[in-house]
Amino acid sequence: MKKLTALSLAAAMMLSLTACGNSDSGNAGTTDANTTNADTSADTTANTDAAADTTAAPADTSADTEGKVYVIATDTTFAPFEFENENGEMVGIDLDLLAAIAEDQGFEYELQVVGFSAAVTAMETGEADGVIAGMSITEAREELYDFSEPYYDSGVGMAVAADSDIASYEDLAGLQVAAKIATEGCTFAESIADEYGFTITQFEDSATMYQDVLSGTSAACFDDYPVLGYEISRGTALALPLDMERGSSYGFATLKGENPELVEMFNAGLANLKASGKYDEILNTYIATE
Hints:
Elements: E1 3-8, E2 25-30, H1 62-65, E3 69-74, E4 83-84, E5 90-91, H2 93-105, E6 108-113, H3 116-124, E7 130-131, H4 139-142, E8 145-147, E9 152-161, E10 176-180, H5 184-196, E11 199-203, H6 206-214, E12 220-224, H7 225-233, E13 238-239, E14 245-250, E15 253-255, H8 260-276, H9 278-286
Parallel strand pairs: 3-6, 3-7, 10-11, 10-12
Antiparallel strand pairs: 1-2, 4-5, 8-15, 9-12, 9-13, 9-14
Helix pairs in contact: 2-8, 2-9
């Protein structure tokens, strides 16, 4: 897997909507993607034969990417999209997709594991070329960043302690709930707080937020539905009493106007992974399906 090295970046809050936002400290890692690339000298003459190969060829970006190692920033803990496994390796849907796409498209990257807020700050200050961290594609963000095609459709869920009697938003009246700073879950909670009469305490990381609910300090927490589902599948004593609220799709982001070739390669690689079945294989590794 990837060889990790130490890195720290200052955390910063993101005012626009997001899907994930956790602790802004973590391990930084260097990931050398397999640079073996498909032969790009193939004849580009259009082939109208119905049986023609539809696999997207690596984008012709050699002039921009030759010898370049992209710096890609990510979150510290946003399972199942990025997290540290029992072997101390950073894994997850985002990181496995990134590695497979880099191999497919033949580019190299260095992974910075710094937390969501710090990852966005690094991209905005030019210290990182892109961010993959369960980042929701929103209209506000599209004014600042260039996004790839969506690679996962998500939504917001409310989790309560497994033995809780809370079964609706109405049951939260007069109580405290937990949410992560600068996340879509936090934004959703804020949007209904006045209507249902609860207060919000914000946290930097998922683990502390979940513990606040388990200890009874907060009556519920709001987070991305697949993240909550994964946590429950691992044995955390939480429950999801309500259906998922429709949310945004996740995308890979670069700063507006910067590194357009990186977005192009991500899209081409993502299309190839979906066509080959590798995309479903990666998702099924982390999210159980019937």
